[in-house]
Amino acid sequence: MTVDTLAAAGPDAADRVRAVRQRHARRGDRGTVRGHAYTLYLVALFAAFYLVPVVHARSTSPASVSVGSLTEAAPLVCALAVAVCWGAQVAGRFWGPVVVQPFLLHVFMSTDIPPTRYLGTIARRRLTYVGATGLLSACAAAYLATDLFDHLDSAVQGLASGVGLSALAAFAWLWGQVRPLRDNLLVASAVGGGAALVAGVSRVAPDSGVGLWLLAGVLAATAAVLGPAALRAIGAVDLARLARESARASQAQTYAWTGTLHHALDLYRPEPSGLTSALIRPDGRLRGYLAQGAIRALRTPGRASAGAALLLIGSAVLTHGVAGRGQGPGSWLWALGALCVYLGSGWVGETWRGLRDELTLAPLFGERWGGTLARTLTWPVVAVTVGALLGGGFAVLVRWDHHSGQLGGTALLVAGSVVMALGARFLREMKLDLPLELLLPVITPFGDLSGLRVIAWQFDGFVVVLMGVALMAALPSAAGAAVVAVCVAAGCVWTGLRRTGWAHRGLFSRLGRG
Question: What sections of the protein cross the membrane (predicted)?
Answer without folding.
Answer: 35-53, 73-95, 127-146, 158-176, 185-205, 211-234, 304-323, 329-349, 377-400, 406-426, 438-456, 462-495
